[in-house]
Design brief:
The structure holds 2 protein chains of 2 kinds.
Chain A: E1 3-10, E2 13-20, H1 25-33, E3 51-54, E4 57-60, E5 73-75, H2 88-95, H3 105-118, H4 124-130, H5 142-159
Parallel strand pairs in A: 1-5
Antiparallel strand pairs in A: 1-2, 3-4, 3-5
Helix pairs in contact in A: 2-5
Chain B: E1 4-8, H1 11-18, E2 23-25, H2 32-37, E3 45-49, E4 57-60, E5 63-67, H3 72-76, H4 85-89, H5 94-99, H6 102-107, H7 114-121, E6 125-128, E7 131-134, H8 135-141, E8 149-155, E9 162-168, E10 176-186, E11 192-200, E12 207-208, H9 210-216, H10 223-231, H11 247-263
Parallel strand pairs in B: 1-3, 2-3
Antiparallel strand pairs in B: 4-5, 5-8, 6-7, 6-8, 9-10, 10-11, 11-12
Classes of the chains: A alpha+beta, B alpha+beta.
Chain lengths: 160, 264
Amino acid sequence: MAKVPVQFMLNGSEKAEFVESGTTLLNALRDKIGDTSPKGGCHQGTCGACSVIIDGELRLSCLTLAETCIGADIKTTAGLAEGGVLHPLQRAFLDAFATQCGFCTPGMIMAAKVLLDRTPNPSREDVVEALSGNICRCTGYEPIIQAVLLAARANSQNAA
Amino acid sequence: MSLALQTFSTVKDASAALQAAGSRYLGGGTLVVRAANEGDVSVSSLVRVADPGLSRIAVSGGKVRLGASATMAAIARHPELAALAPAARAVGGPAIRNMATVGGNLFAPAPYGDFAVALLALDATVFTEDGEMPIETFLTGRDTSRVIVTAVGFSLPSMESFRFLKVSRVKPKGVSVLSIAALLQRTADGTVTSARIALGCMADRPIRALATEKALLGSKLTPQEIAPALAAAGEGITPITDPIASAWYRAEVLPVHLGRLLSQ
């Protein structure tokens, strides 16, 4: 099988790789580039653990082919912390005990980031809707919802 | 297993490539990449068209034309398509809606394809490279079809005339137990002059509730008048059985949810 070159921005730095045609973005990120923050849960588009942000929109990397991302701007949870300082969402997930086994967490944080980027002060319903494509089998969701609301409050306090 | 992806700039060239055995058309990827991930070895090559025109949404003079690559998210947020937003939002979660396309939804087998249920109630026209056809004709032949859908067109319904309901067990989002779309034209005193009702999960693809449509004509949607229409809802249905619900359950709850939708 012929390999195809793919090149895109990943968390602000340019990445170029050769992948087999038909490789999913999830596999390219994890196995080729070494960013293991998106998780392969169901590979069916059901669990949301592989969620990444492509050109500002939340997408599932398990159902996206790497070849279709040439030139795209991709963001993953691995790129959120700056200089060892956690992103407010990451901080809030820890403070609100919103992560147990942690498998769903990177996907949850990507979904929450897209929400807060567009809606800095979301309602509880907004948060529930934004996370509706992400499954968590540990927490019962309530701590995750609280964490996103906490991060939103922290952001607005910093901005004030 | 590997897939070969071929990208074309025109639908015509992609159509030619799609005639090869083992090839499937790649829209948003939520059906075909899913199938490949699941180990569907019948898919060996993927064909896609990189034409931004296929994502265009045009609304003018009461007519709507949705490009086949328009996503559910784009429809849900379109200011002139508020009547359709509930049906577009019924599909998947936010990430899926950023990927799933109108064209793909037309091919989605039950329990998926909630948006196609809305399109069936709206009597949409399906445009392909080879011409156009009514959505019912398209849905009947979709399993063996090798054409690329380029757009769907329909008359924009008013907020009052179009109703949509999806029932799922998980809140706020989940796979469909059933979905119902109803286009009801009524006179000033509320009398139904035309009714088009489409059902999801009541067969392997969206179907119309023809007996219910007929029973509603001339009624004012009072509980007494709705009752015979609900009694007729089971005619011609062959609901699917899957991990979400059995065919028996779906048939039992259909009149209940249809009654709620009609009583709104």
